[in-house]
Specification:
Length: about 300
């Protein structure tokens, strides 16, 4: 993690930054609140702030921010306190992961807002990324607060649980393109608002106990809860398994049809506390190579 931080013209520059590639970070399926700009940079929203991120040679440039916001918001969001070179070195002991890491070597796990991540991954169930992003954007515009206009785009914060808890299910389903998930969103928001599921307490729980708590929420099963734990609660041992990841694991490790439960157990044993990082490298590699796709391309 050898890099220098410079502040210049409403931007923060990380000089000689390794283990950070915006495309790998934003396009590996972990987040939905970003936009790829025409110049190849990425604009993201978090904690009521908007930032644009791009690589220029060996440097990473965060635009539309200052030193204070970088240190209080973006440093944590982009997991900049973690040594990813060390993680990649450990995971590269597995020959399959060693190759996978070469394709997504700039991946970092984002530390996202717990409530927004919970609702986002409820929306993600049996859904396509463009539709997920579209629904989250509509919900933010409809129920969130205006933040700013950046590069001719208006940005809004994601609404809080108490707001979505009071939304009419039919309105949400009809106008915000979430379909059958509307009732899950409203009911989960009510449970979170009433502290039936205390998101703040999840951080201190062991992963299995934390998963049990999240799965009390309607629309949250093993895969969705694992995503939430990995992308919002720093549970690096969480290993989300959906149909896509199942195919990847079967292709690389099992060579046969395998139960989701057995895949999860294998990942826990094989990758330990770094299982979630392994999943992201494998997922990105397989997607880039078209590994695990069916003949229909799903």
């Amino acid at each position: 993690m050898d890099y220098n931080i410079l502040e210049k013209d409403n931007s923060i520059i990380l000089k000689n930054m390794k283990d950070f590639e915006p495309e790998h970070i934003f396009e590996c399926g972990q987040a939905f609140r970003w936009k790829r700009e025409e110049d190849g940079s990425y604009t993201a929203v978090h904690r009521g702030k908007v930032v644009n991120v791009r690589r220029e040679d060996k440097d990473i440039i965060f635009s539309n921010t200052n030193r204070k916001d970088f240190e209080s918001i973006w440093y944590e969001y982009f997991d900049l306190g973690r040594d990813y070179s060390k993680i990649k070195k450990e995971l590269s002991k597995d020959p399959i992961l060693k190759e996978a890491i070469q394709f997504g070597e700039g991946i970092r796990i984002l530390n996202q807002d717990p409530y927004e991540t919970t609702i986002s991954f409820i929306i993600s169930a049996n859904n396509q990324i463009p539709r997920i992003k579209g629904s989250i954007k509509l919900i933010s515009e409809g129920y969130g607060k205006y933040i700013c206009t950046y590069k001719d785009e208006k940005y809004y914060s994601f609404p809080t649980a108490d707001i979505l808890a009071k939304v009419d299910v039919n309105e949400l389903e009809k106008n915000y393109k979430v379909g059958f998930r509307a009732k899950y969103i409203v009911e989960s928001s009510k449970m979170i608002t009433d502290k039936q599921v205390n998101l703040d307490a999840i951080y201190s729980l062991p992963t299995e106990k934390a998963q049990e708590q999240l799965m009390k929420l309607p629309g949250v099963g093993p895969k969705v809860s694992s995503c939430i734990l990995l992308f919002a609660f720093k549970k690096g041992d969480a290993f989300p398994v959906d149909v896509w990841v199942k195919r990847i694991m079967e292709y690389f490790y099992f060579k046969k049809d395998t139960r989701l439960k057995d895949i999860s157990s294998f990942a826990k044993e094989q990758f330990g506390s770094l299982a979630g990082f392994a999943q992201q490298y494998l997922y990105y590699y397989a997607r880039e190579q078209g590994i695990g796709k069916t003949k229909d391309g799903d």
